[in-house]
Amino acid sequence: MVRLGFITGFIALIGVLLSGLAAYRVHDQELTVDGIALARAIDVHASLVQDRLTERELLASVASGLFRSPSVIKANMLQPLRSSIYAFKTDFVVAGWIARLRPEELAAARTELANAGFTNPTIRRYDDTPLQTAGLGRPVDLLMDVEPRNAETMGFPGRCFDEQPILGPMLARAMSEMKPVASDPLPLLRADGPVGVVLAAPVLQDNGAQPAGFVTFSYELAPLMLTNDDLSLFSVALKDPRSDNTELTATERSSVVSRTVDPQSPAPPVYRTVSFGDRDWTLTYYAKTNTMNRARQTAAIVAAIGLALTAIVCGLFGYVAYNNLRLSREIQVRIGFERRLTAVIDELNHRVKNILAVIQSIVTRTLRHGADIDVARELLIGRIHAMSNVVSLLSESQWQGVNLKGLFEARAIPHADRIAVSGPDITVSARAAQSLSLLFFELASHSDEGLSLVGKHPHIVAHWEVTGEEPETVFHFRWEEFNTSAATRRPDSDFSLILLDRVAPEALGGTSKRSFTDVSYVYELTAPMETVIDMSERDRTEKFSAPLKPV
């Protein structure tokens, strides 16, 4: 046993070391594979974002190149471009035409806006306050047309944006560089509108050296950043160009909010740069799953499998010791079986003695001095047959009890076809079953076999019920023979009277009562349910009949 234990321990040590090495290798491989997969997914996402931004820059360039109007003081400059800009399907929020007008052209512009049906043709500043044109000595950038035209956008034309904090510098840069320029992030349509950017492309008139105006397209940030992919390995945010410690991210409702960057974040982000509107934008990627924890979990699973295999191998080597233990247990079971057999034999002897004592009492009382030998023989056979029937029922249930209704079978008592049995389905103990079986036989054997006063056989009703609350429930039994009387019913024998009045009630710990009514004979028996069921006897019998378990 010592040598076997040493060998088993040595194999277990080798298995543990191999399992740890395999878990370490799997941990490193999982980290590498997850890092490669995340980087590839980020590169693909950044490429898609760049393609989307390039499409929108191309739309602005194409739209600015399609302008061929000799005059810019028109409120329908986007009309010829509508089919073209919608063909690109770039989901812009608002497209606009911003004309660069001199002070003397503002009156004509106001008239044009009024004729176009815009809700407020007044020339005004970006904050909707009137623009003081008197003494104005510089050109202004005036919004003249919008697309789409709806209730929310019809009030925008007539505003000057050259003084707007975000759009003004953007228009100035687009005019100086003569290329599409993107603005900083800002709310679109209204102060609480979706966060987005505006792309402005300068428009040159024929043979003109300076921009005559700008074609603008505004876009929401969330679709540009492709932030609504729930199955991606990461979440994406846009670094705010106005602050190094702030970034813009999309919520579950696709609305963009600003948040402060936590420099102590446990998961370091990954950065990618995209170009849009002659500017570089930084995308920040955060992994949705902790690759370190995932690698640890995978390594733990591998280690667990290795330890399980080690345990199996060690178990095979311990099979010999287990066989020894099994043999020892079999010996203990055999000893316990012999003890159980002795107890069962003692119990059987006890029950046989009880049955023989009951039969001896039946024979003695039935064949008393002076009894009619023919009548005594029939009663003796019937009483022994009733005892035999109840013993058969108890043997079938392994002496666990007898269903009370089973005691009224035709083979056990006479005139069973004339007995109407009713009552709850209860199982009585072995001792109660023997007493009740003899009781029912005596009651049935003394019922009138001939005709009664009205020329009919007696009709018998056997009914029982259980009343009261646990643990003080009471068993009530009532036997009533209708269509009979004291004059027509066969008199009870001495044995019957002793059984009905003393033996059966005392065996069940209860009381009995016999009486005649005008039309029936009544026998009533009342006993506590704890003696009728006798759980202590049932528990003892159950222990003997239960299968033997190993010690």
From TrEMBL:
CHASE domain mapped to chain residues: 68-273
Highest taxon of source: Bacteria
Alphabetized UniProt keyword annotations: ATP-binding, Kinase, Membrane, Nucleotide-binding, Phosphoprotein, Transferase, Transmembrane, Transmembrane helix
Source organism of this protein record: Bradyrhizobium erythrophlei
An MF annotation (GO) of this entry: protein histidine kinase activity
Name the record gives this protein: histidine kinase
Transmembrane segments: 299-322
Catalytic activity field: ATP + protein L-histidine = ADP + protein N-phospho-L-histidine
